[in-house]
Amino acid sequence: MMSSFNSIEFKNDKLILINQTKLPLQEEYIKTDKYYRIAEAIENLEVRGAPAIGVAAAYALALAFKHKKYSEKYFDTVYNRLASTRPTAVNLFWALEEMKSVYTQNRESGNLYEILLHKAIEIHQNDIIKCDLMAKNGLKIFDKKSVVLTHCNTGKLATGGNGTAFNVISKGFENGLVSHVYADETRPLLQGSRLTAFELDKAGIPFSIITDSTAAFLMKQKKVDLVIVGSDRIAVNGDAANKIGTYNLAVLCNYHHIPFYIAAPVTTIDKSCKTGDDIKIELRNKSEILEIKGVPVSKGTYDVFSPAFDITPSELIKGIITDSGFYKFPFNFVEI
Ligand code: MRU
């Protein structure tokens, strides 16, 4: 099902990003050809979600060479700036490495910008295809018309295509296999109540927003048939990093005998991480907890611990849906 907005678009040599910090109240777009503005957008979560960050970074790296010729020092500056934006989503580093290898092979070419742009467009187009493959491979998780609970935002806003877990839900809905979605609010930045709700609304899928702490109560009442979320980095053994609060849901599913699934492209699997212990977790600024939209809700002097992601141990994950197929626990992604 198509929704009527574009989250990432490349047009007239500029990247156009919907500003996700303003949604759903305002639909504002950032239009830029400056790599450092895109780096800032990734850092500020104006563009967010693992695959979307990768796509945006690929375009940023290409745009950096719009008016510049090959220079090793300049390439390193751009690469390092983009790589320093967010540490957990491996798709960012994957996309930068893909761009780097194209750069290395063509750095002395007269049309370096066009070559890099071609690669960025390919990464974007492939992401669209991967999202659709995930939706297709994920249909099998619905053995009846289901009520689904999800966390954070995994849709068109979070990817270059139609989403990871969100696209599975959306495909399920199109096929009459999803009756209702519970969208976790997703504290502190409200990706669920702002962004997933925005996308569910656009797609015409019936939904209710719940606070993150409501899930257990709903599960106890047998009101949830399955949980599906995305991931920012998956270790070889299937341990998966995703938005803080995901692990809580997986534990709750285990206790209530509810299947818990992850949907992510193969590019989210990081073969250099044997287990979740090897995944670096981003810590966010305390103002995101102590303030809401710049308005203090607690004392600025209080200490805060705010990890952006947690790690769900693989034994709590019933299946991982990827663009290359459906994998059941126990996972071993050495060969993938
Ligand atoms: O901090 P965010 O909003 O970038 O976190 C995003 C998530 O946790 C998503 O669930 C994840 O990127 C996978 S979905 C594409």
Overall pLDDT metric: 97
Q: What order do the SSEs take from the amino end to the carboxyl end, as H and E?
A: EEEHHHHHEHEHEHEEEHEHEEEEE
Strand order of the largest sheet: 6-5-4-7-10-14-15
What is the 3D shape? globular
Structurally, the number of domains stands at 2
Ligand species: 5-S-methyl-1-O-phosphono-5-thio-D-ribulose
Give the N-to-C terminal Cα separation.
29 Å
**Largest sheet data:** 7 strands, mixed
Individual helix count: 10
Q: Tell me the CATH architecture of the largest domain.
A: 3-Layer(aba) Sandwich
How helix-rich are the residues, as a percent range?
25-40%
Rg from C-alpha positions?
19 Å
Under CATH at level 1, the class of the largest domain stands as Alpha Beta
Low-confidence stretches: none
In short:
The chain is α/β, with parallel strands linked by helices. The protein has helices at 35-43, 50-63, 72-83, 90-106, 112-138, 165-174, 191-203, 215-220, 246-256, 287-290; strands at residues 8-11, 14-18, 29-32, 146-150, 178-184, 207-210, 226-229, 233-234, 240-243, 260-263, 291-292, 295-296, 309-312, 319-322, 325-328. The model has no long low-confidence stretch (mean pLDDT 97).
